[in-house]
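Dear colleague,

Thank you for sharing your sequence with our group. We've completed the structure prediction you requested, and as agreed, I am returning the results in plain text so they can be pasted directly into your records. Please verify that the sequence below matches your submission; if there's any discrepancy, let me know and we will rerun it promptly.
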Amino acid sequence: MPPTRLPTVPAAVPARLPTQPPAQPSSVSSATAWWIAVGVIVVALAVAAGVLVGLNLAQRGAPDGAAGTTRGGHAAPRLHR
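Please find the predicted structure tokens below.
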């Protein structure tokens, strides 16, 4: 049987293969990230405002500085266990 000849690789191989430019992030994900950031800021501001209001009410409601509830300006009865 005569030896078979293998096919040869073409000599003209491009030095650099064409590549796709890097994909730009979509504007949808960017907009979503902005809305999430805005939501986090709003929640943080609401928590801070709630803390300040709570501290103000606690300071007014109990003369010894302890947090307590009031009923018409008078101390509400507390249950001791």
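Summary note from our side: Helices lie at 27-61.

Kind regards,
the structure core
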